[in-house]
């Protein structure tokens, strides 16, 4: 403690400028949310995340818990475990997570494209003509039969067997 000469009041030494209590709480909340996102991943995707095996095991156990209150407490526990990770480890985890989610988004977009392409094939003969020009090696007769059957299924409110088969063929062709 120093005494200020002007007004003779004690002047306290500068406190250590570490993160504030609010900042620590925000960091803990962010890490808890990251743990929740990791818990939602499939077991195969979780195995590719670069982190300690004890944390992976704890995250994998989240899906086995059924009670709401137990899930809440377990998520807090995961946040506590994640607190011990340094910034480099968190960045590596986030980078891998972004890659996993990016692949997932790209795959979803591709499936949506195939679905819309299938719908255009069934509704418009011109789309099929363009497809023949673009993919001359495909089994044209089989595809024509599938399209005809899918139209008939739709008209007669039958189960969409040919409709699904068209999607499978398009996916195999790599369109």
Describe how the helices and strands are arranged.
Blueprint lengths: L1 E2 L6 E2 L9 H19 L3 H5 L5 H9 L6 H16 L3 H37 L1 H10 L5 H16 L5 H13 L2
Helix pairs in contact: 1-4, 5-6, 5-8, 7-8
Summarize the structure.
The chain is mainly α and 175 residues long. The chain has eight helices and two strands. The protein has helices at residues 21-39, 43-47, 53-61, 68-83, 87-123, 125-134, 140-155, 161-173, and strands at 2-3, 10-11.
Topology as H/E string? EEHHHHHHHH
Helix content: over 70%
Q: How large is the share of residues in beta strands?
A: under 5%
- Reported by name, the CATH topology of the largest domain is Diphtheria Toxin Repressor, domain 2
Strand order of the largest sheet: 1-2
Q: How would you sum up the global shape?
A: elongated
The CATH class assignment of the largest domain is Mainly Alpha
Rg, please? 29 Å
Helices, by number, come to 8
Number of DSSP E strands: 2
CATH architecture of the largest domain: Orthogonal Bundle
Tell me the structural class.
mainly alpha
Assign the CATH superfamily of the largest domain.
PSPTO4464-like domains
How far is the N terminus from the C terminus? Answer: 75 Å
Mean pLDDT: 85
Textual characterization of the structure:
- A two-stranded antiparallel sheet has the order 1-2.
- Helix 1 (21-39) crosses helix 4, helix 5 packs across helix 6 (125-134) and helix 7 (140-155) packs antiparallel against helix 8 (161-173).
- It has 175 residues and is an all-alpha fold.
- The chain contains 8 helices and 2 strands.
- The protein is elongated and about 80 Å long.
- Helices cover 71% and strands 2% of the residues.
- The chain has helices at residues 21-39, 43-47, 53-61, 68-83, 87-123, 125-134, 140-155, 161-173, and strands at residues 2-3, 10-11.
- The longest helix is centred in the middle third of the chain and has 37 residues, at 87-123.
- It has 2 domains: 20-85, Diphtheria Toxin Repressor, domain 2 (Orthogonal Bundle), CATH 1.10.60; 107-173, Diphtheria Toxin Repressor, domain 2.
- It starts with a strand and ends with a helix.
């Amino acid at each position: 403690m120093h005494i200020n000469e002007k007004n003779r009041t004690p002047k306290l030494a500068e406190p250590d400028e570490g993160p504030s209590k609010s900042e620590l709480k925000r960091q803990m909340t962010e890490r808890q949310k990251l743990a929740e996102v990791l818990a939602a991943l499939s077991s195969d995707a979780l195995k590719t995340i670069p982190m300690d095996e004890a944390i992976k095991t704890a995250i994998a156990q989240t899906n086995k818990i059924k009670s709401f209150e137990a899930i809440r407490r377990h998520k807090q526990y995961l946040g506590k475990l994640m607190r011990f990770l340094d910034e480099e480890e968190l960045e590596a985890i986030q980078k891998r997570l972004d890659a996993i989610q990016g692949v997932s988004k790209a795959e979803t977009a591709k499936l949506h494209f195939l679905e819309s392409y299938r719908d255009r094939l069934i509704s418009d003969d011109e789309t099929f003509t363009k497809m023949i020009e673009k993919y001359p090696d495909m089994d044209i007769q089989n595809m024509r039969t599938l399209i005809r059957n899918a139209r008939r299924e739709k008209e007669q409110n039958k189960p969409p067997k040919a409709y699904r088969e068209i999607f499978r063929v398009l996916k195999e062709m790599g369109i």
